[in-house]
Structures are given as C-alpha cells and as structure tokens.
Prior knowledge:
This protein is mostly helical. The N and C termini lie far apart (about 85 Å). The chain has six helices and two strands, in the order ααββαααα. The protein folds into two domains: about 1-90, Helicase, Ruva Protein, domain 3 (Orthogonal Bundle); about 100-150. A hairpin with a 3-residue loop joins β1 (about 40) and β2. The chain has a two-stranded antiparallel sheet. α2 crosses α3 and α3 crosses α4 (about 75-85).
Amino acid sequence: MKRLILILTLIASPLFAVQPDEVLDDPALEQRARDLSTGLRCLVCRNESIDESNAELARDLRLLLRERLVAGDTDDEAIAFIVDRYGEYVLLKPTTSGSNLMLWLAGPIMLLIAAVMGWSFLRKRSQVQVEAEKGTLSEAEKERLRQILED
Length: 151
C-alpha cells in the first residue's frame, strides 16, 4: 500500500492554481492562456509561474491575460502589455537583447578574464622560480652572507 501511494505521488501531475471561475468558455483560447501563463512569473512567489501560483497578484495577472486574449490581442501583444505594465522581470525567460545582453554576457566574460589572470599569474610565478634556481650569489653577496652567519 505504501508503494502504491509513493508511485501515485511521483506520477501525479502538478495541480494548477487556475480557479474554475477564471477558465474561459472557448477551449482554444483557454489553452492559449494556459500556455502564455506558464511563461509569466508570479511577482509574489518569485520563480513560480502565475499558472501554478495561488497568490492574489498571480490571479490578477491570469485574469488580465485572459481579458487581453478575449479582447483579441495576439500572444505577443498580450505578453507585451503585461511586460509594459509590470516590467521585464515578469518573464520567466527574459529576452537576450538590449541591456539584458550585457547581463547574459557578463558571466562568460568574467570567467575569461579570471582564466587569463590566473594563467598569467602562474606563468610569472614559474618564471621567477626558474630564475631563482639559475641565479648564483656574487662574491659580494657571498661575503655578506658569511658575515651575517658569523654574527
């Protein structure tokens, strides 16, 4: 019995937070709304889509999205309306253009800079060791060393 419960728990599909009063009459329009709402972030729950969130703001966003679709907006227009109103943070997958491009590229650029700095540090360190191994003391340095050791 315990195994059955475990198996059912593991294969159970996630429950969506969409309330029955939010569901549109047109199944095609409702499917579009569901598809779009999975790509929008709940501003209260953070990394949870508005389709999965039970927060009031997520409900408001779901209703707003459905209103825009019923009004005749295309998918891109509805998303653009919500992004204009709430900012680009509302997108679970932000765009890779404009100022976001700098954020997308900052990590790899910093990694390259760190790799170059590490390589140059190790290279200089190995050169100093080779020079130290090659170098011998001059006669004046040997004399000074003898004096220090005698004292």
